[in-house]
Design goal:
10-stranded mixed beta sheet, binds pyridoxal-5'-phosphate, 11 helices, globular, alpha/beta, binds iron/sulfur cluster, single chain, 333 residues, TIM Barrel
Length: 333
């Protein structure tokens, strides 16, 4: 008799897929053909191990240095303190306008829509962020909308987090309904790793919401390695395009993940093939526990030189770093 398989991942709705995400690093390591004893892990504490199956399915079996695995595995290196690394490397606390709103740059305000993410990226600068005290729940949402309404220079509202697409479509709809009366609000931007890590989330309801906004929509996805752009990801981005949205990809330059010229070239080409135009390549934000991901600045510049020699200009990302107090993300030359 043929054994009955459990429902294939692609047939499950996104909420069910999230419930099935990997939460135990040892279980994923065994699944990938490793002996967990060979991977000394940090106590992940407040930022526990989490990765969706859609993302983990793109990891290579038997490769201890897999660049996708490396992004999510809480290695023991996280526990070693490093000089210059701290809890708020980009000065987010200082740019907080009201609860849940960061107004750092002219013309754009960033809303911390939720603290939840589909995946926990070990290099993330928000890993130390106090979400509980700073997300947009209840009356905080009203205060945030009032703030935006009172700042006529804010033409673009950026939904970020955490990951805004972790919210239900109903909640997203209520959020943009609240913004819809603001005349100077022209563009909605969504910063999300969901299209790459949980492509099933780009469902009909989400697309209907975006298509019905009556505002220009920009979606900035986040992938750091070419292999993150699976066929399911391209399909999801194509669904976004059908709503009229424009999509970009931003990446972080990460040691052991994408710090080789060929790897960066492949990332930009794969992103473009999937429909996401290269946007920023960020130098690592120096958040505590991420020092083992840092690529020295001289090496970053040499990599950019190599990338420029191999790609058309429109596929070359802008190498930037975020410095607290500066009026934009600083180009690195
Ligand atoms: C990165 C960021 C933005 C967006 O900057 P762009 O250069 O427009 O991509 C806006 N607000 C905050 C707080 C940010 O960190
Ligand atoms: S905010 Fe983005 S980069 Fe940070 S952990 Fe969440 S998904 Fe990863």
């Amino acid at each position: 008799m043929i054994p009955v398989d459990p429902a294939p991942e692609c047939a499950l709705r996104w909420q069910a897929q999230l419930q099935r995400a990997w939460r135990d690093p040892a279980a994923l390591l065994v699944h990938l053909g490793h002996d967990p004893a060979e991977f000394p892990l940090a106590d992940a504490g407040q930022f526990p191990f989490l990765v969706t199956r859609a993302f983990a399915d793109r990891m290579r079996r038997g490769d201890p240095d897999d660049p996708l695995l490396r992004q999510v595995l809480p290695r023991v290196d996280e526990d070693s303190p490093a000089p210059g690394f701290g809890p708020d490397p980009v000065g987010d606390s200082a740019s907080r306008a009201v609860r849940g709103v960061l107004h750092k740059y002219r013309g754009r305000a960033l809303l911390i829509a939720t603290g939840a993410c589909p995946i926990h990226c070990r290099y993330c600068f928000r890993r130390e962020f106090d979400y509980a005290g700073d997300t947009l729940a209840g009356p905080a949402l009203e205060a945030a909308i009032d703030y935006i309404a009172g700042q006529p220079d804010i033409e673009e509202v950026i939904l970020s987090g955490g990951d805004p697409l972790m919210l239900s479509t109903g909640r997203l709809q209520r959020l943009t309904d609240a913004l819809s009366g603001i005349g100077h609000f022209k563009r909605l931007r969504i910063h999300s790793r969901v299209p790459v890590t949980l492509p099933a989330r780009i469902d009909d309801a989400l697309c209907d919401w975006l298509a019905g906004l009556g505002r220009q929509v920009v979606v900035v996805v986040h992938a750091n390695h070419a292999r993150e752009f699976g066929a399911d990801v391209s399909d999801g981005i194509a669904r976004l395009h059908r709503t009229g949205a424009t999509t970009f990809n931003q990446a972080v330059l990460l040691a052991g993940v994408n710090d080789m010229p060929g790897t960066l070239v492949e990332l930009m080409e794969a992103g473009f093939a999937a429909g996401a135009i290269p946007y920023y390549l960020h130098l690592l934000d120096r958040v505590s526990g991420s020092a083992h991901f840092e690529v020295p600045r001289t090496r970053a510049l040499a990599l950019m030189d190599a990338v420029r020699r191999r790609l058309p200009g429109y596929l070359v990302p802008r190498l930037v770093e975020e410095r607290a107090g500066e009026p934009y993300k600083m180009p690195v030359f």
